[in-house]
Amino acid sequence: MRLWEMFRRPPPIRERGELADFIDAQAAFLMQKGIYEYSRARAGHYSKVLFAEPSFQHAVEQARWRAYPLGLAMITELAEGVLRPRAGEERRALLDPLAALVLSVFDRYPVPAALAKDEWLQARRELLRRLDLIGIHAVKMAKDIPEPYAESYFSLMPIHEKLRGQDFQTTHNYLRVTMCNIHDEFLARADVPALADAVRKPG
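Now predict its structure.
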């Protein structure tokens, strides 16, 4: 990487494809970072040994793919909250094509090797249900979006539940802080009027 590239501002988000890539990348980052950091913290000095174990690697793969739809739902809710004021009274006119866009992001990936096909298809159905629920309540602050997801996410950690101790609040706080950071990045990069129009007019 050239030195000047290190200081280059991230590109703006104006088009549907750019929004899809943002949601995809941030959802994966939000879920995976928490899983890896929590596992390393719990393993302590033995983290290198643990991560080298094939059985643990498989457990991590299962965890991150099971968590990915949760990340998609959270980042979509964040983006929808920023775009919603541009929708006026026609909230579904924005939410429905946004949900379709996010499902197309999910469909970029074949059934993960770590999961059964039925489980992956059920995850897609559950994602659709969660996306539909976004439109029934007021816009939330970024820090509050993880509230209905945090317990499900924590339950996916590839560490035996007897070893997790009282760590739920730490994971919950991680989600809250990281969502605030992602929100700030989205606000800095999103051309909200152009993006709202692009989402509502996919053709």
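The mean pLDDT is 87.
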